[in-house]
Every structure is written in structure tokens, then in C-alpha cells.
Amino acid sequence: MILTEYFRENKLVTFLCVIASISISSCLIQETEYEKEVKRANEALEAFIHENQINATRNLNGFYFERIAENPSGKTINTGDVVSIKYQMKTLRGTLVDETTQDETLMFGHQERALIPSGLNTGVSLMREGEKYRFYIPFYLAFGSFSSSKFFQPYENFIIETEIVKIQNMDAIALSELDSITQYLEVKEIENVEVRNSGLHYYTVKEGTGKQPKAYDVVTFYFGRKYLNGQLIEETPYQQPVTIRLNTGRAVPGLEEGLRQMKEGGISVLIMPSKLAFGASVQVIPPELRPILVGNGIINTRTRPFAPVLYEVELVSVN
Q: Which of 138, 203, 236, 313 makes an SS bond possible with 41, Cβ 3.0 to 4.6 Å?
């Protein structure tokens, strides 16, 4: 009986060891496949640079950069600065992905995980204001295995021509956003706006008659969030209001502050600088890809960085 149990136990151990070996082997195969993709990408970039006789330098991270226009006296970038760029993005195969228009720039905070593709975020740290570089970026510093039928394939390598138009600190950004809000209110001829110490601009469309929320109350409300140019970012579906508890981080600070000024049944408009909204959220190139990345759980906000936003809010109930 003891021997029988012994053999049963050893058979089980042997079986588990075999399963473990298969699992480990599978992991190694997956890792090797990724390493093969990395090797292919590096070889493709190296071949492209060589065959086209491009005078480019390879960065230790794996991308190449080519200086197109230099500006030795230009301002350098520090961590936390806000960088405005013009760009043209192509695949290494030559397909145009996206580019800024003549009067358009793209803004992002120069810090870790602030820009997709990440290789470009690293690359711009080599540049000065007024300079133009061309970056050759492998997939593993861009979108990895992610793909979009409209834009690019999995494991796609990119060429991104980039010009730094302006480098600003956060104080300059705050002043610029305040100017944008003030100009918006003047153009729309909106009056009776309350400007709170935080920077929130608030006005009432319909006065409520019910309870006014306090800290940690549960509030139910409808909202629409827009950029100041009127572009809709997100809104609650019809007959599907949002319910949150205040002071628990479920809403951006400007929205929470605005809700606390309202009463049940009221409708208000809240206009806020990015410091009360989504601040230095991650920037995406191309920007049109942002909602797709949100839908895939790769990033968590639909709102671009350093963007003042407008909320139209209807407070349904307070509990």
C-alpha cells in the first residue's frame, strides 16, 4: 500500500515537472520570438540608413537621429518643460502616417511616459529650440506589436521628422491657458462668470432648488466635456448619468469643485485650466489614435495634455 502511494506520488511529481518544463519552454519561445522581431527591426533600420547613405547616429536606446537644421544658441530642454513641435511621421516603408499642418503644433510635457512613441520623447532631449531632426525609430520604442488598420502594421518602424518650435515652463503654460479661457469668454460674450481662487471659471445656466453637495456626498450627474474650440471629448449617454462619491479622486479637481457649488436640478458650465483637469496627460502621435489607445487600455485619458476644458454639468441628485 505504501509502495503504491509512493509510485502514485512520484508519477504526479513527474507529470508536474513535465508540465513545468513545457511552460518554461513556451515562455522561452515567446521571448525568443520577440528578440527576433527586435533583431529584424535593428537590421532593417541599419540597412535603410546604409542603403540611403544617410548620415545618422545610433543612440544607445536603439533609434537613429539625423540633424537637418541646427541652432546652437537655442534653448535646451529640461525635465518637466513643455515642448511644442511640428512633425511628419512615416513608416520606414514610406507610408505617411500623420503630419502637423502649417499653423499647427503638438504639445507635450518632457518627462517619462509623456509621449507615444517613447523613442521620440527621448530623441527630442538631444535637440534645442529651433532645431530640426529626423528620427528613425524601431517598433520597440514606438507601438510595439500594437497595430491600427488605418495607420500601421504590428512591429512597425517609423521615420519622424521633428522641429522644436517652442520650449516653455509651467508658469508660461498657465498664463497661456488663462489667456485662452479669457479670450473664449470674450468671444462668446459670456457674463456673470465667477472666477474662483483655484482658477475655475463657473457660471450657472439653470439654478437648482435641491440639496447642495458636501465633502464625501454621493452625487449623480450628466456631463459633457469639450475643448474650448467646441470639439466634444466625452459625454454621458442619454439616461445614463454618472454616480460618484466626492473627495475620492473619481473626478478631476475642477469638476469636483464645480459640483460643490451646484444644487440638485441645476445646470452649470465649468471652464478650467489643465491643472484642474488632466494636466500633463500622455500625448499621442498621431493624435487621432488616442481614443483607440484608450479603448485598448493602453492610456487612460481621452483629453490631450495642457488643454483647458469646458464641462456642461446637470446635477441630478445628492445623497
A: 138
Return d(Cα 226, Cα 235) in angstroms, integer. Answer: 9
CA-based angle 31:282:247, to the nearest 5?
115
Cα separation, 319 vs 315, whole angstroms: 12
**H or E segment to which residue 220 belongs:** strand 218-227
Cα gap 262→57, rounded to integer Å: 58
Q: What is the pLDDT of residue 32?
A: 79
Q: Measured between alpha carbons, how far is 315 from 219 in angstroms, rounded to an integer?
A: 7
Tens of pLDDT, residues 88-132: 999 999 999 999 999 999 999 999 889 999 999 999 999 999 999
Distance set, CA 136 to CA 1, 94, 142, 160, 265 (Å): 69, 12, 10, 7, 55
Structural domains in the chain plus CATH codes: 1-168 (3.10.50.40), 171-318 (3.10.50.40)
